[in-house]
């Protein structure tokens, strides 16, 4: 049979497992794509395995978006850390493990989706009698394939488009496609998903699967991202005016009445309130399962010394990734989100006082698992507040709506945070409101790129924040990450490196 590869990463179907805490987690042992798909449950396991590639998504957003942005001044305070080159705009990060994982992790998910789609086409009708289930599985696979490609295009710009399984020899002749071609596949897949996924799932076992509203929300963000400036870098922005298309989708989500605005900000992230009314799509985790399907993102931005200071085992965050003074000072005094999201220093078990602040948003010290790789809290990818604020953004870009509509949305969010109402919200002010609302959720870098203000904001931020004088001057080429060196080495000349590296 043909080998199914993820360009440089081989995908062995027998090693796939489900990521959802409630989805079927039965391992597919000693199987190949030739003999595995023999009953309906095999196809369900295969789509669950495609969700499995989401496991590293939260860590990726914190490492590549949050750390890259003006939210963190993550220079090293001892030893060489992988995040330092990300934070400081080093030109030599093509071999950085975070960058390599962003490529390989997404392509692993894409190939799992492609295998499933191929087998659904070849065997689905003869094995799965339920046509509704067949269509749903196809829609889930296409949603996930689009999701992974959207992540890739935001990090790397032009990437190879693979919409079917290929041989190793074929893969070595597939170069990078234009960003517009990558988007064509993403939009087609998401449109199919939005038309064919259910509004919701009726059984607890299906919690965490993508719905049509998840597809519409991601598609709206795709249109908005495409509408951002190009910066002349072959990046995610194409300068298109698709704010109206995005607004239509956002309004459909709002009008569905499937989701609502929670009155309490901490309750959105509570370990005992998962899958709440704010959640449109999340990455599901569990603790105590075999294979392990827990998360590592809760401790990623918190130092080990803090866990030790409160009587917990070290987790893996190592040294501190301090929150920037710029972000700390941007919070208004009454903003309740600051105390929930940020730990303002601590005294170590050795009596050393740490005055720098760091993110603790996802940490519940009463829920620390025995295994540091096995945190049970879900990671929210898309929530209702985001839908509302994205709607306000579209209106500010000329989509139907009024300044009063924008103010009303922003003031709803501010009121929950304990803040007074404001008027005449501008795009710059909206982005600052988003910055506090979604701090440590991995959206800041993407928001800066989409806003068109990343060059001016990052340049002035580096000048003010880089007291150690270790950061490189910002240039627009750094909006994208380099193509991983491991990919360049597979076949020299197949891919050209992104400019600036």
From TrEMBL:
Keyword S-adenosyl-L-methionine attributed: no
GO-annotated cellular components: cell outer membrane
Start and end residues of each SusD-like N-terminal domain: 81-224
Domain RagB/SusD: 347-501
Gene3D superfamilies recorded: 1.25.40.390
Annotated keywords: Cell outer membrane, Membrane, Signal
Pfam families reported for this sequence: SusD-like_3, SusD_RagB
Location in or out of the cell: Cell outer membrane
Keyword Glycoprotein: no
InterPro entries according to UniProt: SusD-like_N, SusD_RagB_dom, TPR-like_helical_dom_sf
Protein family according to the UniProt entry: Belongs to the SusD family.
Protein name as it appears in the record: Carbohydrate-binding protein SusD
The species this protein was found in: Niastella vici
Lineage of origin: Bacteria, Pseudomonadati, Bacteroidota, Chitinophagia, Chitinophagales
């Amino acid at each position: 049979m043909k080998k199914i590869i993820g360009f440089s990463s081989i995908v062995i179907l027998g090693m796939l497992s489900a990521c959802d805490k409630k989805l079927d987690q039965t391992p597919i042992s000693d199987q190949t794509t030739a003999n595995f798909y023999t009953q309906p449950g095999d196809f369900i396991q295969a789509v669950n395995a495609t969700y499995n590639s989401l496991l590293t998504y939260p860590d990726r957003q914190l490492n590549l978006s949050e750390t890259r942005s003006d939210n963190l001044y993550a220079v090293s305070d001892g030893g060489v850390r992988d995040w330092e080159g990300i934070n400081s705009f080093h030109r030599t990060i093509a071999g950085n493990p975070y960058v390599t994982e962003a490529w390989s992790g997404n392509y692993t998910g894409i190939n799992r989706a492609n295998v499933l789609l191929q087998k659904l086409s070849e065997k689905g009708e003869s094995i799965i009698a339920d046509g509704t289930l067949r269509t749903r599985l196809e829609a889930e696979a296409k949603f996930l394939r689009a999701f992974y490609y959207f992540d890739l295009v935001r990090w790397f710009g032009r990437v190879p488009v693979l919409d079917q399984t290929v041989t190793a020899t074929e893969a070595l002749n597939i170069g990078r496609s234009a960003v517009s071609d990558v988007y064509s596949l993403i939009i087609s897949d998401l449109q199919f998903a939005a038309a064919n996924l259910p509004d919701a799932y009726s059984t607890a076992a299906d919690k965490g699967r993508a719905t049509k509203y998840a597809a519409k929300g991601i598609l709206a963000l795709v249109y908005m991202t495409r509408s951002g400036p190009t910066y002349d870098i072959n990046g995610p922005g194409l300068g298109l005016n698709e704010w109206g298309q995005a607004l239509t989708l956002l309004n459909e989500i709002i009008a569905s009445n499937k989701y609502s605005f929670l009155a309490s900000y901490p309750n959105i992230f509570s370990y005992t309130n998962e899958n709440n009314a704010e959640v449109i799509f999340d990455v599901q985790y569990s603790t105590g399962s075999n294979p392990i399907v827990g998360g590592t993102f809760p401790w990623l931005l918190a130092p080990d010394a803090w866990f030790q200071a409160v009587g917990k085992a070290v987790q893996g965050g190592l040294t501190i990734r301090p929150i920037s003074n710029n972000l700390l000072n941007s919070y208004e005094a009454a903003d309740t989100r600051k105390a929930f999201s940020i730990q303002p220093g601590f005294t170590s078990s050795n009596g050393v006082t740490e005055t720098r602040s760091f993110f603790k948003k996802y940490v519940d010290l009463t829920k620390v698992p025995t295994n540091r790789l096995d945190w049970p809290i879900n990671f929210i990818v898309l929530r209702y507040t985001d839908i509302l604020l994205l709607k306000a953004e579209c209106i500010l870009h000329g989509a139907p709506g009024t300044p009063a509509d924008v103010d009303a949305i922003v003031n709803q969010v501010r009121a929950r945070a304990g803040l007074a109402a404001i008027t005449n919200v501008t795009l710059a002010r909206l982005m600052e409101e988003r910055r506090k609302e979604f701090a440590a959720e991995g959206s800041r870098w993407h928001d800066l790129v989409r806003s068109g203000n990343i060059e001016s904001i990052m340049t002035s931020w580096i000048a003010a924040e880089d007291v150690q004088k270790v950061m490189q001057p910002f240039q627009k080429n750094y909006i994208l990450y380099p193509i991983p060196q491991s990919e360049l080495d597979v076949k020299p000349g197949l891919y050209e490196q992104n400019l600036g590296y």
